[in-house]
Structures are given as C-alpha cells and as structure tokens.
Amino acid sequence: MKIRIALYGALREADASGHVELEVPPGSSIAELRERLAAYLAGHAPAIPAGLVRRSAFASAEEILHNHRTVPAGVELVVLPPVSGG
Given 3.10.20.30, 3.40.190.10, 3.10.50.40, 3.40.50.1820, which CATH number is that of 2-85? Predict the structure, then answer.
C-alpha cells in the first residue's frame, strides 16, 4: 500500500513539496515504515542524518503512532523530528 508522509523540520529538506510517498506491505508496523523512510532518505537526501528519522515521532491526525503499531491505510502520516535536534 502507498503511504503519504508529510515531513517537517530538517526532514522537509528531503523534498521541496514537504511530502514523500512510500510503498509498504499491508500490515507493516511503524518501525518498518521508519526503516523504509530512513533508507529512502539515505538515497534521496544523504545530508539528512539517518538517526534523525529514528528519533522522530510518527503521527496521524489523531494520535502519535508508536513503533509496534500497524501503519494505518488511507491516512496521511506526519514525521515530527525532535525539537532542538535531539
């Protein structure tokens, strides 16, 4: 399934539109999506440190999504990097 992800803070520099779309298998966890995003950024925006994605929060419009949660279908997600870089 295709997931649209809004990027904020330093992550926004990965794409001028402020969004990326990634393909993940149905039933994927947020942890798996996090790793796919880190891999995508390594290839498309190597200036962004991989650790930044690992420290960022994933959220839907309603809630923060922890690593064990399943990626919701049909919902835009956001990635919120930590404030002050850490």
Answer: 3.10.20.30
